[in-house]
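Notes to self after the Tuesday call (sharing in case useful).
The group wants a holo model before anyone commits to mutagenesis around the pocket. I volunteered. Ligand is zinc ion. Logging inputs and output together so the record is complete.
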Amino acid sequence: MEDTTSMKSWRLEVIGNCVQAEEYDSFIGGKPKLPPDIDIPKCELCGNELTFMFQVAFPQGHVWAGKSLAVFYCVESWHDRYCIPELPQRIVDADISEEFLRNYERNFHVIVFDTPIGKMVDTYQEKIAFQILKTIPEKQTKQEWDFVMGGRPIWIMGISEKPNTIAGIEKPALLLQIKEDFHFPILPTAPKQANPFAPGGLSLFPWYDLFVSNRIYFWGVQSNGTERIYISVQRP
Ligand SMILES: [Zn+2]
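Result:
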């Protein structure tokens, strides 16, 4: 029998040239909306404040409906071996242990919270241009969509890297995918992204990338009211 819950998806359409307002819960850049007691996370490798990349609010019908997920990443230092999330020893059918996750978020950080308690962090100095992510229900998943919640994983390297378990829990949910080669356009005032291959060690481009522009898969499990996230990537 076909599993219809895994067919359900939500495409997130990127809409630029907008002014940020409190009403938007899914967006790229601008200022994050976070629970009032949460600070902007710092990079555990270089100590700099992490850059707010994007956040999404999972809609009704999604396995994490009512939750939001916000992603922060270190753009001001180059962390060679952590430019993508740490890989487990076995990538196919991986069992992602509690121990593995304990030190997992070094130069990035994912915050999960109840959507209604998020408040715009007015003191945050935005670096990425604000763009709305408009949620559109779909019944399929297409590789060319920039962001898609739920649906099915598009394995651009041809092999499935769906984890078997996360923190001992089976059947992790595919929460979100970001298309390969997606760019986060930055404001003219923002520092350029660290890039050891560019002259002067700084990217020449007016955008940031997340996990060196791989296709990104966010997996999640919930246990005892706690959310655990594991991120896999595939190279275009
Ligand atoms: Zn750093």
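Two things stood out.
Helices lie at 98-102.
Residues 98-102 form the longest helix (5 residues).
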